[in-house]
Design a protein that fits this description.
By secondary structure, the protein is α/β, with parallel strands linked by helices. It has two domains: 88 residues, Rossmann fold (3-Layer(aba) Sandwich); 49 residues, no CATH class. 35% of the residues lie in helices and 17% in strands. It has seven helices and seven strands; from the N terminus they run ββαααβαβαβαβαβ. The strands form three sheets. The chain has a three-stranded parallel β-sheet, covered by helices on one side. Strands 1-2 form a two-stranded antiparallel sheet. The radius of gyration is 20 Å and the shape is globular. The protein starts with 8 loop residues before the first strand and ends in a 5-residue tail after the last strand.
Length: 184
Amino acid sequence: MPVQNRIVKVQKRNRALVRFDEARIWKAILRAAESIGGFRQDFLPGINDKIFDAYGAEDKIAEFLADAVVVSPSLMSREDVRDGVALTRKGGTCVLTGMAAQTTRSAKIALQDFILWNKNLVGTVFGSCNPRVDIARLARLYQTGQLQLDEMITKRYRLDDINDAYDDLLSGKLIRGVIDYGLK
């Protein structure tokens, strides 16, 4: 029997499991973004000050922090690390999945906050897999129908259409696009 590659339930902040509703998740993300200034700017300078001014107390602010924060820009910056850790709740985990420039040697985080709030900061590349073992295992799962990769592809593009792929990605029409060299 093939394995289903889909989310069925999600865990809320209060640990309750609820049915996954993609439309509801998108609405919550949009409401959250609009509440802090919408999508008019790429970076939100002073966001912590805005939240403190609006809610004043740390216990109220803690309601906005996430159990897990996944930071995945195309190029990781010091600010990305700082902001990801700042958005992580007490005992939560911030996961860095992007690559940093080779000249970036350190990141500045609020160390006292990091230690006292028992936060975890982890990095991962390729899902922290062991390529020598895992790639062969994943290939076997795919060949036996237990890993349904084809169903994860939103659209296939010819190499000549790469600009269309980027446009679709930026406009939100595309989740997982693939450049298929076999397409004519």
